[in-house]
Amino acid sequence: GYGGQFNIQLASTSEAEQVALEWGNNLIIKGNLPFLVTARIQVVHTMAANEILAWGLMSNYTSVLDQATRNAWFKQDGSNSLLIEADDNSTDTDDKDTGVDITAATWYWYSIAQDGLGTLRYGLADARLQNFRSWTMSKNFSANEPSFGANGLQPVIAVQKASGTTQPQIYIDWWGFCGERAQ
Questions:
Q1: Contact (Cβ atoms closer than 8 angstroms) between residue 56 and residue 31
Q2: Which of the residues 58, 86, 89, 147 could staple to 71 if both were Cys, CB 3.0 to 4.6 A apart?
Q3: Do residues 55 and 154 lie in contact, with contact meaning Cβ atoms separated by under 8 Å?
Q4: Which are the contacts of 24, defined by CB distance < 8 A and separation ≥ 6?
């Protein structure tokens, strides 16, 4: 990748395409135990209407992201608006706009943390770990916090396009997890 970062870029072929980094459906993150998932990502180009980027956590990988049984992630769906989503297989909370527009060719730190007491917190900071913002479904969007129970999750970073010749591209400089792992 560029400068030591991992590079994901889709081809210019006019077709639906996707590339995802995930843990091979090894769901070792228990939804009811404390965890922290972080990533430092740069969206290289301004998003096109046919492009979707998602990074965070999900149950078994599915190429149709909205069909994941469980998820908690950041998402850009055809625009530079940063959205958050969560689905616990009972309550599906989609496309909550954080009010932040992601600037192309700029590094951001993303985090998703579970405190083990039922609150899932999404966090965003700039490249220097300043200007930190955070959101929860209950406080910022008057939505229910996801209740994953003991169900397993895995980290995921996905880049997709529905059709066309655009080439969505991201760089990943850091991707990590800490917390209690399922046995």
A1: no
A2: 58
A3: no
A4: 154
